[in-house]
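Run 3-alpha,7-alpha, 12-alpha-trihydroxy-5-beta-cholest-24-enoyl-CoA hydratase through structure prediction, thanks.
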Amino acid sequence: MPIDAAKALAAEPRTGEISWNSKDVQLYHLGIGAGSHPDKPSPATDPDELRYTLESRLHVLPSFATVAGSGSPGVISGLSMPGIEVDLAKVLHGGQSLVIHRPLPAQGTATAAHRIAAVYDKGKAAVLVMRTEVADAEGPLWTNDAQIFVRGEGGWGGDRGPSARLEPPTGEPDRTVERPIREDQALLYRLSGDWNPLHADPEFAKVAGFERPILHGLCTYGMTLK
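Sure, done. The structure for 3-alpha,7-alpha, 12-alpha-trihydroxy-5-beta-cholest-24-enoyl-CoA hydratase is below.
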């Protein structure tokens, strides 16, 4: 079996130093649509947007933690952890949780520890929970959990894991926001570190079962937070 759950869970965390600067933050913000306002036509120099794009007044969105230092929490590198041997074309980023322990600085250096926190058997797929814990000299900064679906790798009789389902709310929404998606949105967003060819290479996307490259889920995740 390409996924050995016991071996993956028992593996020592991979640790390393990561660093980022204001340019990385600005590039990430542009990748999730900074420079335009969802509620009104406005120039890229609108003060509400400059706080995401101008280094002299830079406000770091918490979701920057999903790409800081190494891109989406070590997802591709995590697929080479002990006990994990899967086909990248069968991989989908299915969920994300993020805990911010302190406001993120616009530049910094920290230590990141990556490990497989859980392996679930969903029948037709396996789910890997890849956890990244990041701390600097002052203490914890953030904890990232990426839920990675690996199609075709379930069915070994393991723990199915949580199966909570969110029921859609009734009634009218409190607010509706429409956000335009650029044709090159995925190409811009991937410059922050998520190099999965599913988001850029048409041939790879077809092999993975898609008509064309798809937009990163973490891109719309960041758009929603912004």
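Strands lie at 14-20, 91-100, 108-121, 125-136, 139-151.
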